[in-house]
């Protein structure tokens, strides 16, 4: 009799999350998809090795992408010496089998969680939040509100004059203004937990070291858009000013069937951040550093450019941080 250990992991974004669950890696009859306690479809990531992180050449390629971005957005900072240290060295990692949400967690799913638990997010408690707002040609500006008007129900603020003042017609979009703490609370309710950084990266890139979830070409090659990202004067080349309904870009699917793992919304992972962690990371099921000052987010967002959509890219922020 084969046991299955359902340790579920949620892949959360600074705005949205997706879910995962670890299982007995010796099992050979696992279904390709399951449904989580929260009703979310989950896809299987089989046990085995994958290539994690970046090589020196990968970092050179990322710098070229960054310089291309800088050509139309002079405020872009490109720093080969410092930006990619935390992605190196590239190394082999073995992971037991697990499941991950096919889609980022939507406003509708998060509302159900709030209705059942009465949960209050960090943005609502602190009454302070940050939103990035389109403010010009390829330019976004950070706007901070301290009056409680900006939260998951109003990611850009209740007084925002554009199309994104509230979520009333955006129930299929990924939930925004989520802190790491909020993500963990949702996971607990859903019987899940955040993925490790390694689990996130394997689900996004597969086993062949690809640059993006869909492969090694830019997200708009051939006039086919593969992600919701900052392309165009106001990000609208992909059809969406801010976030998009989950699963809107089927050409951007990962090798295992996970959607929106590049662009749309940043996604939280469980790990603390340490710039040198890959130099000492264990081969099997790495969990990240034991402690740290900030947490890791992955995947880029609706405003980011190709160099930040790469499967190896990471950013780190305070675990109480939340924005749109």
Describe it.
With 324 residues, this protein is α+β, with helices and mostly antiparallel strands. The protein contains 6 helices and 12 strands. The protein has a domain at 7-53 and 91-121 and 175-317: Alpha-Beta Complex (paralog of FGE (formylglycine-generating enzyme)). The protein has helices spanning 56-72, 80-83, 107-117, 122-126, 180-190, 197-205, and strands spanning 7-12, 17-22, 33-35, 41-45, 48-52, 91-95, 98-101, 129-136, 139-145, 267-272, 295-298, 314-317. Strands 1-2-7-4-3 form a 5-stranded antiparallel β-sheet. Strands 10-11-12 form a 3-stranded antiparallel β-sheet, with helices on one face. β1 and β2 form a beta hairpin. The relative contact order is 0.21.
Order of helices and strands: EEEEEHHEEHHEEHHEEE
Q: pLDDT below 50 for ≥5 consecutive residues: which ranges?
A: 1-16
Per CATH, the class of the domain at 7-53 and 91-121 and 175-317 reads Alpha Beta
Rg measurement, Å? 18 Å
Helix content: 10-25%
| Secondary-structure arrangement, i.e. CATH architecture of the domain at 7-53 and 91-121 and 175-317 | Alpha-Beta Complex
Count, helices: 6
Number of extended strands:
12
- The CATH topology name of the domain at 7-53 and 91-121 and 175-317 reads paralog of FGE (formylglycine-generating enzyme)
């Amino acid at each position: 009799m084969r046991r299955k250990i359902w340790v579920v992991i949620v892949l959360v974004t600074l705005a949205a999350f997706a879910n995962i669950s670890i299982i007995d890696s010796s099992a050979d009859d696992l279904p390709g998809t399951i449904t989580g306690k929260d009703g979310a479809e989950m896809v299987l990531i089989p046990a085995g090795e994958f290539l994690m992180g970046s090589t020196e050449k990968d970092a050179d390629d990322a710098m070229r992408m960054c310089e291309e971005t800088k050509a139309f957005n002079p405020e872009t900072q490109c720093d080969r010496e410092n930006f990619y240290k935390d992605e190196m060295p590239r190394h082999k990692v073995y992971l037991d089998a697990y499941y991950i949400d096919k889609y980022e967690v939507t406003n509708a799913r998060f509302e159900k969680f709030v209705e059942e638990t009465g949960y209050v997010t960090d943005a609502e408690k602190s009454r302070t939040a940050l939103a990035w707002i389109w403010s010009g040609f390829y330019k976004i500006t950070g706007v901070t509100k301290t009056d409680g008007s900006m939260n998951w129900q109003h990611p850009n603020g209740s007084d925002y004059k554009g199309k994104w003042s509230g979520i009333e017609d955006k129930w299929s979009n990924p939930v925004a203004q989520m802190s790491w703490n909020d993500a963990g609370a949702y996971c607990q309710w859903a019987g899940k937990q955040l993925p490790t950084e390694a689990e996130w990266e394997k689900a996004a890139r597969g086993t062949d070291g690809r640059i993006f979830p869909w492969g090694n070409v830019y997200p708009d090659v051939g006039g086919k858009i593969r992600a919701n990202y900052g392309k165009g004067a106001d990000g609208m080349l992909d059809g969406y000013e801010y976030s998009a309904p989950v699963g809107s870009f089927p050409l951007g699917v990962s090798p295992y069937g996970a959607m929106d793992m590049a662009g749309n919304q940043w996604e939280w992972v469980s790990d603390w951040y340490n710039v040198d962690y890959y130099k000492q990371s264990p081969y099997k099921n790495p969990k990240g550093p034991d402690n740290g000052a900030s947490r890791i987010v992955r995947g880029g967002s609706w405003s980011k450019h190709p160099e930040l959509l790469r499967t190896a890219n990471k950013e780190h922020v305070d675990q109480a941080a939340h924005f749109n």
